[in-house]
């Protein structure tokens, strides 16, 4: 049996201001965002009911954060799911500016 995340493609749908997890051309989930200057607010994560519990949300969060990093931007994790993902994956903590971390209950050091 193959893992559902093996077939996930994450794309930046800038027209809709969201990163989409696509499987076989269908949207399995998304992370909404809003970009202002050099900061990207990740505001909401949603995974289609048929794909819940398969790691789609985590794959989506990780790849969205990778895209923010690749763009040389910082992130405001307004979405609780993304914030928890960063807590569990501290390699992404540097994407949250030091002055913003306390606001999101993230480590400041």
Question: How does this model look, in words?
Answer:
This protein has three helices and five strands, in the order ββββαβαα. It has 109 residues and is α+β, with helices and mostly antiparallel strands. It has a single domain (4-100), classed as Aminopeptidase, CATH 3.40.630. A five-stranded mixed beta sheet has the order 1-2-3-4-5. The model has no long low-confidence stretch (mean pLDDT 94).
List keywords for this structure.
alpha+beta, 3 helices, 109 residues, single chain, Aminopeptidase, globular
Low-confidence stretches: none
Beta-sheet strand percentage? Answer: 25-35%
Distance between the termini: 41 Å
* Whole-angstrom Rg: 14 Å
Question: Based on CA inertia axes, which overall geometry fits?
Answer: globular
From the 3D structure, determine the CATH topology. Aminopeptidase
Number of helices: 3
Please state how the strands of the largest beta sheet are arranged side by side: 1-2-3-4-5
Helix and strand element order: EEEEHEHH
Task: State the secondary-structure class.
Answer: alpha+beta
Mean pLDDT value? 94
Question: What order do the helices and strands come in, and which of them pair?
Answer:
Blueprint: E1 8-13, E2 18-23, E3 26-36, E4 39-47, H1 56-70, E5 74-77, H2 80-88, H3 98-101
Parallel strand pairs: 4-5
Antiparallel strand pairs: 1-2, 2-3, 3-4
């Amino acid at each position: 049996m193959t893992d559902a995340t093996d077939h996930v493609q994450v794309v930046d749908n800038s027209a809709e201001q969201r990163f989409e997890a696509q499987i076989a051309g269908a949207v399995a989930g998304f992370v909404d965002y809003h970009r202002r200057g050099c900061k990207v607010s990740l505001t909401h994560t949603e995974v289609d009911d048929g794909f819940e519990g398969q790691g789609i949300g985590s794959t989506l969060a990780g790849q969205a954060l990778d895209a923010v990093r690749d763009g040389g931007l910082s992130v405001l994790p307004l979405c609780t799911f993304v914030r928890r993902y960063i807590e569990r994956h501290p390699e992404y903590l540097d994407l949250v500016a030091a002055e913003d971390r306390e606001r999101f209950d993230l480590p400041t050091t």
